[in-house]
Specification:
Structural class: alpha+beta
Strand order of the largest sheet: 1-2-7-6-5-8-9
CATH topology of the largest domain: Nucleotidyltransferase, domain 5
Radius of gyration: 28 Å
Helix content: 40-55%
Order of helices and strands: HHEEHEEEEEHEHEHHHH
CATH architecture of the largest domain: 2-Layer Sandwich
CATH superfamily of the largest domain: Ribonuclease H-like superfamily/Ribonuclease H
Length: 286
């Protein structure tokens, strides 16, 4: 039998609860469920505190807005600079995998895309397109979607770049970049026919030569082991989706511009690889 002192006092419990609420805390006995909820809340708070307090960038990209939602960053590298950086190529090229006439370097179009994911499908968005061509030196153009509504303009830019049916040069472009661009074209009722162009996908000769020697045949592996190129502070392409999302949501430009630098480095590596394997045989493409 319990005395009065053993019984809880409802009024005092209610008062303590009210005082706790006034002080900003709940003094009700913790249950397992409430304990878990508190842990989740603390984790969310820590995650929020770990985010930068101020945006990294003000949402403005360098370059020129050439259409609503599409920015063009253009850079030029003169012939003398290209020679010093070992990014020069012969005036004409005829690698052993090309069965036709020699190709003037002006006919080559080096290209690389950055996308909203690493898998294909209709949901994949190309948000950055880098193209590189020789015009008395190298001219680099990087088209960046500053708004998803600029997709149509990006398609038009790609169609203009390949309107003269250049010889394409890429690394895994046959299986990734060209299908991604073709999907974008179809969504906007266009077709460049680029899948039918002559295409020097440098992954294939590298893979055929080194797949039993190297741990893998990724581009950066080829850079290190074939070109002795070591990237410093390079943001990997796997970070591209997050960089673009952060730009669209928060106006953060820092990571997106780092992806543009990564894209530019990829294109420069294509020149160096072609310089190496396009003039030293035997190399074969499927």
């Amino acid at each position: 039998m319990h005395g009065i002192a053993d019984q809880p006092n409802p009024s005092s419990a209610t008062l303590a609860h009210r005082l706790g609420l006034l002080r900003g805390r709940d003094v009700r006995p913790a249950s397992p469920d409430s304990d878990i909820a508190q842990r989740i809340a603390r984790l969310k708070l820590l995650a929020t505190e770990a985010r930068p307090s101020t945006p990294r960038g003000d949402g403005r990209l360098p370059g020129e807005t050439i259409a609503p939602g599409l920015v063009l960053i253009e850079r030029k590298l003169g012939a003398l600079q290209a020679l010093k950086l070992r990014l020069d190529l012969p005036e004409t090229l005829l690698p052993d995998w090309h069965e036709h006439n020699p190709v003037p370097r002006e006919r080559l179009l080096f290209f690389d895309t950055e996308t909203s994911g690493l898998n294909g499908g209709a949901g994949l968005k190309v948000f950055m397109l880098g193209v590189l061509r020789w015009r008395d030196g190298w001219t680099l153009k990087q088209y960046i979607l500053s708004d998803p509504d600029g997709e149509g303009a990006l398609v038009e830019a790609w169609l203009a770049e390949v309107s003269d049916q250049p010889v394409l040069v890429s690394y895994n472009g046959k299986r990734f970049d060209i299908p991604a661009l073709a999907t974008l074209e179809r969504l906007h009722g266009e077709s460049s026919g680029a899948a039918e162009f002559a295409h020097w996908d440098l992954l294939y000769p590298v893979r055929r030569r080194f797949r039993k020697v190297w741990p893998n045949c990724r581009l950066q592996t080829a850079e290190r082991l074939l070109l002795n190129k070591h990237r410093v502070d390079d943001m990997p392409g796997s970070e591209a989706p997050r960089a673009w999302r952060d730009f669209l949501r928060f106006g953060h430009t820092h990571a997106l511009l780092e992806i543009a630098r990564h894209n530019r480095s990829d294109l420069e590596s294509l020149i160096a690889l072609l310089r190496q394997i396009g003039t030293h045989g035997p190399w074969t493409l499927p």
